[in-house]
Amino acid sequence: MNFVPTPIPGLVVIEPQIWKDERGFFIETYNEKPFSTHGISGFVQDNLSYSHRGVLRGMHAQAGDNAQGKLVRVLRGRVFDVAVDIRKSSSTYGKHFSIILDGENAKSLWIPPGFLHGFLALEDDTLFAYKVTGFYDKSGELGVRWDDPELAIEWPLRHDEFIISAKDRQLPLLKEISNPF
Amino acid sequence: MNFVPTPIPGLVVIEPQIWKDERGFFIETYNEKPFSTHGISGFVQDNLSYSHRGVLRGMHAQAGDNAQGKLVRVLRGRVFDVAVDIRKSSSTYGKHFSIILDGENAKSLWIPPGFLHGFLALEDDTLFAYKVTGFYDKSGELGVRWDDPELAIEWPLRHDEFIISAKDRQLPLLKEISNPF
Ligand SMILES: Cc1cn([C@H]2C[C@H](O)[C@@H](COP(=O)(O)OP(=O)(O)O[C@H]3O[C@@H](C)[C@H](O)[C@@H](O)[C@H]3O)O2)c(=O)[nH]c1=O
Ligand SMILES: Cc1cn([C@H]2C[C@H](O)[C@@H](COP(=O)(O)OP(=O)(O)O[C@H]3O[C@@H](C)[C@H](O)[C@@H](O)[C@H]3O)O2)c(=O)[nH]c1=O
Fold first, then answer.
1. Is residue B135 in contact with ligand 1, taking CB distance under 6 Å?
2. How many whole angstroms from A48 Cα to the centroid of ligand 1?
3. Interchain contact A173–B (C-beta under 8 A)
4. CB distance from B158 to chain A under 8 Å?
5. Which letter does DSSP use for residue A139 in this model?
6. Cβ–Cβ pairs < 8 A, chains A and B
7. Whether B60 is catalytic
8. Which of A126, A174, B2, B67 might form a disulfide with B15, Cβ 3.0–4.6 angstroms?
């Protein structure tokens, strides 16, 4: 397992070892030992979402008593995954990091609390799995529009192909929210 | 999340809530609260295996300092999953429980320490995910042949279609192992 830093402090890409044989493959997708050595621990919930091509989920964060760090990965299919630093005292405040996650590269991205997160599914049958360090808590949820010009995310695919929940279409801009981080 | 007992004490089937919408679906596949309420806790590692149709993995257990309870599920595809009770003082010693796990039913099976476990992939592109309560430890691994007549497992598919690792083809019979449980 390799832990690879990104240009945004705290955001880490994890590359697992993939064991292939005539049966298929085997991967340890999470192991408490190397993760806690890298300061990543405390997971309490595992989530799975399934998305059609063009589904965009985001940009979301969970703050408060159940603030969430997220360890995200794709099991099948392919996404354009984005995390935006909204930690007010961060030297990279407002900057984002994007990465292609897919079932082949089997990479994970560790996103500590203090980031907005979202992704666009680039293929049908995309299975997206994530572990979180705080229980789901609607009272701590916040969100920002995927197309907020301040975020300046260059999403792939044509925007008229996007499938976005009613909730996410109504999100405010970053400058309109009261930022708890 | 429903926790459904099976005829073998300790083995539990878990049925999650599946939230469907125009984007696809969302599932909490694991949540520390309801699981620990049901006495299931202490996961330290998450594993993922990918198998072609006909791949049979098993029958395995891990005993010793890192004895493993396993929470197993299928994310995509379909398996015939089997757990054999080898707890020497159990009233159901030697009995097995089998279940079809697939990406649609999204069921999990909780297998405490003291069981042999194995599965047969019934479809190509089968993704099998499991959480374990002990770190991988070769010194604690034990295995029994999938076709041990004492286990009397009625595997589906034709046996000449099976793809089995060299390691698993050489496993002993249950009566030949020294049983640590
Ligand atoms: C996130 C979540 C949702 N749900 C339920 C509530 C809803 O009815 C249904 C769908 O929830 P939504 O918030 O619309 O799912 P979503 O897929 O849009 O939300 C997710 O988007 C990702 C980009 C973020 O990283 C996640 O943290 C999360 O916010 O699932 C839970 O039961 N537990 C959870 O942990
Ligand atoms: C199980 C495991 C394997 N590996 C490596 C060692 C091998 O090179 C490669 C494949 O290992 P194998 O033991 O052949 O995989 P396998 O898929 O045959 O083994 C699994 O079968 C399931 C039925 C059991 O429930 C599991 O507990 C496990 O025994 O993966 C790890 O690094 N960590 C692990 O936790």
1. no
2. 9
3. no
4. no
5. G
6. 108
7. yes
8. B2
B157 φψ region: left (φ > 0), alpha (ψ -120 to 50), beta (else): left
A60 is catalytic: yes
**Residue type at position A149:** P
Condensed to tens digits (0 to 9), the pLDDT of residues A97-140 reads 999 999 999 999 999 999 999 999 999 999 999 999 999 999 99
Question: How far is A133 from A145, CA to CA, in rounded Å?
Answer: 24
Spatial CA neighbour of A73 closest among A94, A104, A45, A114: A104
The residue ranges of every structural domain in chain A are: 2-176
Q: Is A21 helix (H, G, I), strand (E, B) or coil?
A: strand
Q: Is residue B57 within a helix (H) or strand (E), and if so which, with residue range?
A: strand B56-62
Q: Which residue has the tokens 């945004």?
A: A8
pTM of the model: 0.97
B147-166, pLDDT tens digit by residue?
A: 999 999 999 999 999 999 99
Determine whether the interchain pair B31/A45 forms a contact, defined as Cβ–Cβ distance below 8 Å: yes
Query: Which residue carries 């309490």 as its tokens?
Result: A44
CATH superfamily of B2-176: Jelly Rolls (2.60.120.10)
Which ligand 1 atom is at minimum distance from the Cα of A141?
A: 29
Smallest Cβ distance to B29: which of A47, A136, A165? A47
